[in-house]
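ingest -> validate -> predict -> emit
validate: passed (alphabet ok, no gaps, 162 aa)
predict: started
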Amino acid sequence: MELLTQARNVGILHRQTQAYITAVSSPMGISFSECILLMNIYGNEGINQEKLSTLLFIDKAATTRSIQSLEKKGVIRRVTGTEDKRAKKLFVTGKGREYQAYIFKCLEAWEKVTTEGMDEAVKDQVFKGLQMMAEQSMRTDLSECSEFKEEGHKDAIEPEVE
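emit:
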């Protein structure tokens, strides 16, 4: 498949998934980013904010803002760690637990929509491939992209101006 088509398809899937999660989380009064964090706290009770940021590969400041908002909304609570007073452990409240079944039911529905017509083997292959791509992209030092330019490949990055 052509690289541009792949990039377009990944972008479309990302934007549509974000729009879907935004739509299904809005009745709960939480944003897309808050929903993503909450879904990951469900499976990682007691995780601290730093580890959550690392797990999701997102900015620590953005994590902090969303965590503070979820806490104000009564969906999660932060507990100061006993060994490290700076590390706040994250736990879901009763209110947050009420959302869990709904959120995961919505995610299952979205998976059905996006994988309709695929057999289990194809779905498994697609999901494993996406996981591998995500992991590889996280290991990539983006500052190395400038090295490509410095190695005499300037024309591949910057088009000639006439």
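The chain has a mean pLDDT of 89.
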